[in-house]
Design brief:
Layout: E1 4-6, E2 9-15, H1 17-34, E3 41-46, H2 50-57, E4 65-75, E5 82-87, E6 97-105, H3 109-119, E7 125-133, E8 146-150, E9 156-157, E10 173-176
Parallel strand pairs: 3-4, 3-6, 6-7, 7-8
Antiparallel strand pairs: 1-2, 2-10, 4-5, 9-10
Helix pairs in contact: 1-2
The chain binds guanosine-5'-monophosphate and magnesium ion (MG).
The site of magnesium ion has 6 residues, from β6.
């Protein structure tokens, strides 16, 4: 497959679109089966999950809602440095069935932060759907019910994921080529 260059790095296709969509089909079928009758609210975490969210939602056949949140990173004044704030939750989450839609879970810290924040809004239940999981990097104890694909620790781009803002538009997933 055609290698691509983004800034200083070379990438090669590692997961073609057809393989991605096969797994998105499977995850959507699981959600349709598990969450029927619960009117789930899908909360898509921008920017990285926009493409996954679009393909997933096209396959969700049960009544549901979808909304978008963003994690704003800013330099905190505490010793921990970076603080991530969740912005864009305009819905009342009380008693709702929530499905967080993420592009990738790496260490799991971002997901943990999201769960903490959403948990304060009294939802009935929170489920996690992620396009990608790097199991060897996971440091946090998370119950991730819906995983489209498990991948090794290498850096990837495409299908919504970026390298320095670039590469989100590719329909396939690319892995960095070691040089
Ligand atoms: P975590 O908090 O789980 O360690 O990190 C999750 C975030 O790290 C993702 O939302 C994504 O922004 C970034 N990330 C982790 N691995 C990759 C990768 O291989 N490629 C890209 N583009 N982003 C990644
Ligand atoms: Mg993400």
């Amino acid at each position: 497959m055609n290698p691509i260059r983004i800034k200083d790095k070379q990438f090669a296709v590692s997961i073609p679109e057809a393989d991605i969509l096969k797994e998105v089909d499977r995850v959507a079928a699981e959600i349709n089966r598990d969450l029927a009758g619960k009117n789930p609210l899908f909360l898509s975490v921008l920017n990285g999950s926009f493409m996954f969210t679009a393909d997933l939602m096209k396959r969700i056949a049960i009544p549901c809602e979808v909304s978008f949140v963003k994690l704003a990173s800013y330099q905190g004044v505490t010793s921990t440095g970076k603080v991530k704030e969740v912005i864009g939750i305009n819905e009342d989450l009380t008693d709702r069935t929530i499905v967080i839609v993420e592009d990738i879970v790496d260490t799991g810290q971002t997901m943990q932060r999201l769960l903490e924040t959403l948990g304060t809004r009294r939802p009935r239940e929170i489920h996690i759907a992620t396009l990608l999981l790097k199991p060897d990097k996971l440091k946090v104890d998370l119950d991730i019910e819906y995983v489209a694909m498990r991948i090794p620790n290498d850096f990837i781009v495409g299908y919504g994921l970026d390298y320095d803002g670039l590469g989100r538009n590719y329909k396939d997933i690319y892995t960095v080529v070691n040089d």
